[in-house]
Amino acid sequence: MALNGDEEDFEWEPPTEAEMKVIQARRERQDKISKLMGDYLLKGYKMLGDCCEVCGTVLLQDRQQKNYCVSCQELDSDIDKDNPALNPQAALSQVRERQLAAQVPAAAPELNGGPTSSLASALVPQPRPEHCEGAAAGGRALLPPPVVASPPPPNTTLQPVLEEAEEAVLTKLRWATTQLQSSASLEASIQLCSLISSCANSLRSLRELSQ
Amino acid sequence: MVPLEQLHLNHVLQTVSALESVILRSFGPEGGQVLFTRDTGQVMLSRSGKRILTALHLDHPLARMVVRCVWKHSTITGDGSKTFVLLLASLLRIIHATASKETHMFQSHNSTKAAEAATARHLADKLLEFALTELDKFIVLNVLPHGFCVSLENFTAKTQHNLSFQTLLVSFFHTRLGYAYCDFFRNLFCELLSHWKVKDDQPSFSIQLLNNSFPALHTQVSGVPVSCSRLIEGQVIHRDFATPCPQVRKQPLKAAVFNGYLGIVHFSSWTERSVESIIATLQSFGVSVLLCALKQSSAVLAAATQAGMCLVECVSEEEISLFTYVHLDFHDCEERLKVKPCSLVICAPSEGQADQHACAFQDALRMLLTALEPMHKTQTALKKTIPSEECTSLHTDNISNEAACRVHLHQKCVIETGCVISAGGTFEFLLHHALHQYGHSCSVSVNTSAVSQLLAKALLSVPRQIYSHNLKHFLQAQTRVMALIPRQPNALSNMSLKLLDLGFESVSCKYQLVLAVLQCLTNLLRMNMLLRTHTILHTKSHNSLNAHSESSEDEDED
Question: Where is this region: Disordered (chain A) (predicted)?
């Protein structure tokens, strides 16, 4: 037994730098999850005996009997972190890259990235709604309200960009409406209504721009 | 088919980490307080780990188990609930990291998770075994020499022992009740102890008596400033007279205590006559006060009123037992008459605060009881010898043998009681150093070395959290404690006196804490399945645990 142990000891190698980074990132994520869970427990949330099916984190339940998974609904998963469609930070960084590319006269700006990227250029990213009681319902789908002042994109690419933006806003409007119909919580309904009104405002400004 | 769920090491770690993050912000001398609000609008501030953890809504069985362990530990030692959770979480993290590296030991398991769990279980068992057999030797050799002894002989004398005792109390009340009232409560506590001290018995006897009868011994008064708290002579019965109370006569009052009903409950003419005859008999003995544990019938009340006797009904069991103990048992022995029974009145602006002060008092009693427990009794010879001159200089004025620190060079038996060490992580630093050195020495096996190093690493998390606001302070504290090690122990140097400023904590309490944490850890890691039941499973301790919580949560796990 001891001999076997020695042989297998020699097989174990210390993790490489990339693996160390992954381990470190995972540990930090776990620490963040614990801290968030602790905060919610102190606010009166209940720790359930169940785990989330998606990520395996312990579920919390608020006063309105709604289940809440800290990692799925507040922290982004490792994969979705860089997807601009799901993360306004990633979208903003992509937009900035595009603006830098557009300043170079020879290169034409590339229309890559998600449909929300042009919308993100006019928007100011808000802090995450971690401190709201009804954060569970909002989740990451809450878009920050649009800001009127924005740098106008070049005229040649205006029309398709505006069309894309309109389509994105309409999609979100549709989604918010379906959520509102099925929503049971007061806070969530208020937030969804505000989302719908901000979508309507965005549509109005987009249509004004196209005229 | 009963639904089963596998418990993995990750679940355990996540649950305990969540509990750790709850108490982390209140931990240490710079920790904050938690504001509790009820639906009725009442608010209360508290830093007590036990109160915070029991107020949480927890349905997860592992979390409830941990909180129950903390509660039980706190009921015995009176302190250390936050340190418990911190140490537990740190041990789990280290074991998790070790288990994921060393799963080769249990290759026969199907999955890596099962192998990890088995490794973790094995490590926890080894840790507990090590702690139960060897840890006390490390503490006696490496930690106790740098501490001080408390004595309960004479509270007012300014000896070194007495100073340690006073500092221990002040630092305890400081952590629990804040800086403003720690001196005031220390004085009140010492006064209470001195009144209840039985001359020919061990001090722990009177402290045990006070602890057992504390609910009967104190009265909480709200709406009055804290400085009005004081001791009053005699015992307070928390009930009003059920019959009109005539004027107090000059001769000593005679009282009769009844545990049951006087006469038979059912009303009948025969009963009336029997009650009258009982009252007449009592009157012939000269009894003027009747204390009853149960509610008496109107016939009894009428008869007592007619006879001019004061009757108090529904007196609690603790009050009756204290009353009978003081007035009957104490009078057996002449020397015991010197005890002056007194009762504690705790005043505070609000009910919640009065309750907190009362709990702090009782926890101080429990802490002292644990501190005075004998630390270590061994037949093996000490490896290091302690010079006898320094030993005798400490207790020149202390001739009795209860709470004295006594090291005999010629005898091979060591009994250490009442030892304290300066707070601020000194215990953890010293024990960490000792275990670390032991782990690196050549005379130990690989397994023991791994286990002792694991424990050493986990212990360091406590001072790290204490000084989490400033890493420089952590390093300074570590350097200061490490500088103590090569010195001659028990020397009252300038260094030791400086450490007095940090306050004291009991070594025995810390030892009990480490053992309790390791036992809780072993129990946690032995679980690997979760069974969901359709009925409510309640135990008595669970009910008393949730006595404070206002919400009526549904316990069904469907």
Answer: 109-130
